[in-house]
Amino acid sequence: MILLLTRILSKVALALMVGLLAGCQGGVLDPKGQVGIEEKQLIIVATLLMLVVVIPVIFMTLYFAWKYREGRDEIYEPKWSHSTKIETVVWAIPVIIVIILGVITWKSTHALDPYKPLKSDKDHINVQVVSMNWKWLFIYPDLGIASVNELRFPENVPVAFQISSEGTMNSFFIPQLGSQIYSMAGMVTKLHLIANEPGTFDGYSANYSGPGFTNMKFKAIATETQADFDAWVAGVKAESIAGSTNNGILDQASYDKLAEYDLHAPVHEATPVQYYGSIKPGIFNDNVMKFMKDHGKVELLKGTTFDSNMIQGNSNHGEMNHGEMNHGEMEMNHESSENSSHEMHMEADK
């Protein structure tokens, strides 16, 4: 009877697993990149470790329910209050599993750090990403072009993303390639991904951001060869890609126009794919820094280098304040020290 029950349960579990995995095409369990493959392995290992506890518990629940069912001559007499064997099993197995998961988490957290560049014999491609309401803007600073709701790169070439937001917080996610990461206004997050094979992968926002949220989708296209990618770049620059909209140069005026949206519109239409054949240098950093106090005086591309005029101005201002306050502060400090000394002498006399 127990053997028959076990066989039935195993068949049901297998059928459920096949049914669930059948709908995973194009998702995290169907990875097409190095990062995605490692994350899939991590998911499987963690799931199997947890099933070490879950499966015996399910089996024992069904077994005890069957063994002590009504009408059976089994006598249930719990005349003991402690069992060293049971306590050992109940505590040892979960502790071991938690330790193993902790080690795996520690290693994978460092190995899959999204800020960590991927090892490759090819130079990475820099892409600056801006989430808008409700569209994605992709800027290629080294190539001088930009695109809306379409991301292209060659296969087996690592892509280094710098991600920010024009307003509402979103989450940049290409499930088949790997990790998701948030985009926030006034901040720049980083992500490194790679596609191990050519194809078209779905990308979207994994964070709800308003009534047009369902339109925040884009296509990540990994070209088969570097030549195919170069041809696409040349087509964008020459405004010769058929069936697409080319908006000329991406400067601050066209950027602001692209970022416009109507929050109270009855219907939010999806933004079609668009291209910009040229870009204003530093357009990404300018719009990141516009949320900052010293907008225009901090150059992100040069690390933490501040504008020399601002530094000199602040220094002069500080020197003036020091000069203006120096004499007054000295007099106040002198009077304060005399008063304090007089009070100390009075206390000593008492």
How many strands?
16
- List the total number of helices: 7
Largest sheet: 7 strands, mixed
Instruction: Give the helix/strand class.
Output: alpha/beta
**Alpha-carbon distance between the termini?**
97 Å
Radius of gyration: 31 Å
Strand order in the largest sheet? 8-5-1-2-3-13-11
Poorly predicted ranges: 304-338, 344-350
Estimate the mean pLDDT confidence.
81
**Run of helices and strands:** HHHEEEEEEEEEEHEEHEEHEEH
Shape annotation: elongated
Can you offer a commentary on this structure?
This protein has helices at residues 2-22, 34-67, 84-111, 226-238, 252-259, 283-289, 308-349, and strands spanning 125-132, 135-140, 145-148, 150-154, 159-165, 170-173, 181-183, 189-193, 199-205, 217-223, 245-246, 249-250, 274-276, 278-279, 298-299, 305-306. The chain is elongated. Residues 304-338 and 344-350 have low confidence and may be disordered. The N and C termini lie far apart (97 Å). It contains seven helices and 16 strands. The chain has 350 residues and is α/β, with parallel strands linked by helices.
Question: How are the SSEs ordered, and which strands pair?
Answer:
Layout: H1 2-22, H2 34-67, H3 84-111, E1 125-132, E2 135-140, E3 145-148, E4 150-154, E5 159-165, E6 170-173, E7 181-183, E8 189-193, E9 199-205, E10 217-223, H4 226-238, E11 245-246, E12 249-250, H5 252-259, E13 274-276, E14 278-279, H6 283-289, E15 298-299, E16 305-306, H7 308-349
Parallel strand pairs: 1-5, 4-10, 11-13, 12-14
Antiparallel strand pairs: 1-2, 2-3, 3-13, 5-8, 6-7, 6-9, 9-10, 15-16
Helix pairs in contact: 2-3
